[in-house]
Amino acid sequence: MSTSSDQVATLSGPTAAELRPAAELAPRFPLTANASPAAADAHAQVMDHLTFGVAFTDHMARASWTPAEGWHAHRVGAFAPLTLSPAAAVLHYGQEIFEGLKAYRHDDGSVWTFRPGFNAARLNASARRLALPELPEEDFVASLAALVGADERWVPEAAGSSLYLRPFMIATEPFLGVRSAHAIEYLVIASPVGPYFVHGFQPVAIWVAQDYHRVGRGGMGAAKTGGNYAASLLPQQEAYAKGFEQVCFLDAATGTHLEELGGMNVFVIDADGTVRTPSLTGTILEGGTRASILQLLRDGGRTVREETIALTELLEQIRSGEVVEAFACGTAAVITPIGRLAGEDFDVTVADGAPGQVTTELYTTLTDIQYGRREDPHDWMYRLV
Ligand SMILES: *Cc1c(COP(=O)(O)O)cnc(C)c1O
């Protein structure tokens, strides 16, 4: 059983104050400007109709790696299709990792990102698990600074919007033998995105998967890798068909306790104000949003527990009113209130299905920090432009 004694080390990268300024880092990825960037009307069409992950900016950042050369050819160039051998290892064995973070426009026009040092550290933790080369943390931040510097006009201004940044690393060596590849590419692409909640908070209905698991002990659960997402697609599709928006996965070893959603961590709040989230046992991806929420709650003097959350106990606590709120969290949606939890033999409504007070407060505090409307006592915000 997972108990708090199984707690794995949490990620810690440099804070924004510990990183060199963007103006110093960005030149590490020299820019060759896109010769045919999107025309003004095409740009306006995208920026006036923001969705998630559909439209991309004019540029992408990139670096290459081989065992002999290490990381080299750091650059920013035109966003363009990749040229890849059909034998590229990533296409066959899934040697791939990614990250997700956002660039936020503040009221004074400046552009900032949230805890890039955390994401840099997480990329490298994922890299180690997938036998990929680590990227120096400052080069990771440099790639974001260079790309957002080149694509500043794609950082939206509308309330709640942002430029979503997607760094990723892939094995490009054309080789069908099974070993870690000898040619790797690191890239960053960017997509202007609208607020996730156009009509404010909308509590979602969650299906608890009992027949499928996304990861197992010793697997890749603590790494941010496409393979884990591939494992979540079929359960996700089946849940959609039943009328649910998201799937919550249970631990594969016992099938008794909550781990996380396909791409979001999960929290529950007790009637006495205690906040609980599943502990990091190696099968859960440590979210930057999760880590930040824990910090904000501790700052506020709240009781916070990272522990095993048993499904049967939780259902009982929701029914009896001992658990009064639940939410999922991640960079894309920030915080998603959970209004309903159902599985093969249960179906419960959390509180009255409306977003709770603590959930709403956390959402406001976190987004206020990200958009520069509130003090940032932990040096989370890093200025890109
Ligand atoms: C990315 C991700 C999260 C959320 O991480 P954030 O850093 O908060 O965006 C949670 N679970 C999984 C499986 C993820 O891939």
Automatic annotation (TrEMBL):
Modified residues (N6-(pyridoxal phosphate)lysine): K224
Enzyme Commission number(s): 2.6.1.42
Involved pathway(s): Amino-acid biosynthesis; L-isoleucine biosynthesis; L-isoleucine from 2-oxobutanoate: step 4/4; Amino-acid biosynthesis; L-leucine biosynthesis; L-leucine from 3-methyl-2-oxobutanoate: step 4/4; Amino-acid biosynthesis; L-valine biosynthesis; L-valine from pyruvate: step 4/4
Cofactor: pyridoxal 5'-phosphate
Gene Ontology biological process terms, A to Z: isoleucine biosynthetic process; L-leucine biosynthetic process; L-valine biosynthetic process
Family matches, as Pfam families: Aminotran_4
GO molecular-function terms, A-Z: branched-chain-amino-acid transaminase activity
NCBIfam families named in the record: ilvE_II (TIGR01123), PRK13357.1 (NF009897)
Protein name: branched-chain-amino-acid transaminase
Source organism of the structure: Georgenia subflava
Origin organism lineage: Bacteria, Bacillati, Actinomycetota, Actinomycetes, Micrococcales
